[in-house]
TrEMBL record:
Residue ranges occupied by any Thioesterase domain in the UniProt entry: 45-111
Record's keyword terms, sorted: Hydrolase
PANTHER family linked to this entry: ACYL-COENZYME A THIOESTERASE 13, THIOESTERASE SUPERFAMILY MEMBER-RELATED
Database matches in Pfam families: 4HBT (PF03061)
GO molecular function: fatty acyl-CoA hydrolase activity
Domain of life per record: Bacteria
Protein name: PaaI family thioesterase
Family: Belongs to the thioesterase PaaI family.
């Protein structure tokens, strides 16, 4: 599974890499780079949200076996603690996908320490 044409160029610039693909889930690695860091080297929330949204689109592709046009209806994000000094692992899991809507959850955690730093729930309209 590759990001390629499934995401726009500025999302590709995040440097996301596929780490693991499950039946209904995908894990991406989001590298913490100076371009994505805030003061003190903390990963910025905007990058986390973009990575979460992207991971869920890939999880939906895995679920359906192909890209299916969709649009984010809701992305509810809770930032639990700052992340610095390590990459983030972004795990997206499809909870339910029907004919017109899909629901999922995403966990972002430190790649080194495994501690959860951000949780998100999503709803997508399937077009």
């Amino acid at each position: 599974m590759r990001l390629g044409r499934a995401v726009c160029p500025w999302v590709q610039a995040l440097g996301l890499r596929v780490e693991c693909v499950g039946e209904r889930s995908v894990v991406l690695r989001l590298p913490v780079t100076p371009a994505l860091a805030r003061q003190g080297g903390m990963l910025c929330g905007q990058a986390m949200m973009a990575a979460a949204d992207t991971a869920m689109v890939l999880a939906l592709m895995r679920h359906f076996g192909q890209f299916r046009p969709c649009t984010t209806v809701q992305l509810n994000t809770s930032f639990l603690k700052p992340l610095s000094g390590q990459d983030a692992l972004v795990e997206a899991r499809v909870l339910r996908a029907g004919k017109s809507l899909a629901f999922g959850e995403i966990d972002l955690r430190g790649a080194r320490d495994g501690q959860s730093v951000c949780r998100a729930s999503t709803t997508y309209a399937l077009l």
